[in-house]
Design brief:
Blueprint: H1 7-22, H2 30-38, H3 45-55, H4 58-62, H5 66-70, H6 77-89, H7 92-101, E1 105-108, H8 116-119, E2 127-132, E3 141-146, H9 152-168, E4 171-174, H10 180-190, E5 195-198, H11 212-220, E6 222-226, H12 238-248, E7 252-256, H13 263-273, E8 277-281, H14 291-298, E9 302-303, H15 307-314, E10 321-322, E11 328-329, H16 339-347, E12 353-354, H17 355-362, H18 366-378, E13 382-384, E14 389-392
Parallel strand pairs: 3-4, 3-7, 4-5, 5-6, 7-8, 8-9
Antiparallel strand pairs: 1-2, 2-6, 10-11, 12-14, 13-14
Helix pairs in contact: 1-6, 9-10, 12-13, 16-18
Length: 393
């Protein structure tokens, strides 16, 4: 039986009818609708996802009838009224103008640029505000996190690991904080690799402020991301939320120096909950910044001394990954290969491939094939099964 109509229903329905007009020709684009819905107080990632699942799009949710909105889990009468009136009460145009003026791209979860690994976690951000460029290759990422009060040992270790992993083809993800985070970003860029920084506040309220130049560099060799509005100030509670994005973007998280109560340990816990790998770097037993890492190791985290420990744990991808319309990879390290290295690698099959056949297919002289195979072996992309045959790992 249908519920009897109430005065509030008529009021909400009138507001809905007005909002419907906004989505008629020319229809509000989905990114703008997604931003509008995301700005409704009370619509968090889970309710947002349920609304999209129920109504097919943000525009559909904004145009939905009050009675239909009430059927969505977690949506009460107050939130119903806020949603149906959102197109008139929320100044989306202002936020769009701020983003345009400051070269901030808005990515909703239907955007082709929205990171695939992040979309697969329990509560992915409804909207990402991005400065820089996200590439399909960034789906192969490793996070490096740790203490803001890092020792010299921690800084050097984070930088070394980031450089090595970037050279192997990984994008390095971290949180732009002082200490380990900054060292990880710097290490990746020094190696000519890509890095992603995730903020706890908005782009225009950068924290810490002294990392403004670092953020600018990162946006030229990757992207700076946040789910917060551009002018939102960072809050204590926003950093744990930020950490789920750091781990969600990554295949695994490496913790370098962390006290027993540390945001880096929150990232590690979230990584485990998201099905990501967790790695930890051991330190001195008399250093309190080692205690968090040592506890992770006791709990089963993979001990990391070099990037080999990471590569061995991740190994080849379970299934080949398409990074663009023409390129498929089986291992993250393939992203950094030269044209010649790719040519030789593609001539080597998963079944034993004779050296003479590799020469024939590549058209390269024996000396160049041999030197290239040595590089591919060091990168753990191929291995010898006999004196004259190799297989692709």
């Amino acid at each position: 039986m249908n519920e009897p109509s109430t005065e509030s229903d008529h009021t909400a329905r009138d507001a809905t009818n007005q909002s419907n007009q906004l989505f008629e020709t020319p229809r509000l684009d989905e990114t703008t609708a997604a931003l509008c819905l995301n700005l409704v107080p009370g619509v968090g990632p889970r309710i947002y996802a349920d609304l999209i699942e129920t109504f097919g799009s943000a525009a559909g949710a904004l145009a939905a009838a009050p009675a239909d909105l009430r059927n969505v889990n977690g949506v009460g009468s107050k939130l119903v009224s806020a949603i149906v009136s959102a197109p008139e009460t929320i100044n989306v145009a202002q936020q769009l103008a701020i983003c345009k003026e400051n070269q901030i791209e808005i990515l909703d979860r239907d955007s082709e640029k929205y990171p695939v690994p992040l979309s697969e976690i329990y509560d992915p951000p409804s909207i990402l505000f991005s400065r820089g460029t996200l590439l399909p290759a960034d789906n192969l990422a490793i996070a490096i996190v740790g203490s803001r009060h890092a020792t010299n040992y921690g800084i050097k270790t984070a930088s070394r690991l980031a450089r090595g992993l970037a050279m192997a083809g990984f994008t390095i993800v971290s949180g732009l904080a002082r200490g380990i985070d900054a060292a990880a970003h710097h290490g990746a860029m020094e190696a000519g690799g890509r890095t992603l920084a995730v903020l706890g506040g908005g782009h225009l309220r950068l924290y810490p402020a002294e990392h403004a130049e670092l953020a600018k560099r990162i946006s030229s060799q990757g992207a700076v991301l946040t789910e917060s509005l551009p002018e939102s100030a960072p809050k204590n509670g926003s950093f744990p939320r930020r950490n789920r994005i750091v781990s969600g973007l990554s295949l695994g998280v490496i913790v370098v120096e962390a006290a027993q109560r540390s945001g880096a340990l929150i990232s590690a816990r979230l990584a485990m909950e998201q099905g990501r790998e967790v790695f930890a770097v051991p330190g001195r037993i008399d250093n309190r910044m080692s205690r968090g890492c040592h506890q992770l190791l006791k709990d089963g985290a993979k001990l990391v001394e070099s990037i080999d420990d990471v590569l061995e744990e991740l190994g080849p991808l379970a299934t080949p990954t398409q990074i663009d319309s023409e390129t498929e990879i089986r291992h993250p390290a393939e992203l950094k290969l030269s044209d010649q290295e790719s040519l030789v690698l593609n001539a080597i099959k998963i079944d034993a491939t004779e050296f003479d056949l590799i020469m024939e297919q590549t058209g390269l002289p024996a000396s160049r094939v041999l030197s290239t195979i040595s590089v591919l072996e060091m990168r753990r992309l191929v291995k010898r099964v006999s004196g004259t045959a190799l297989v692709r790992v």
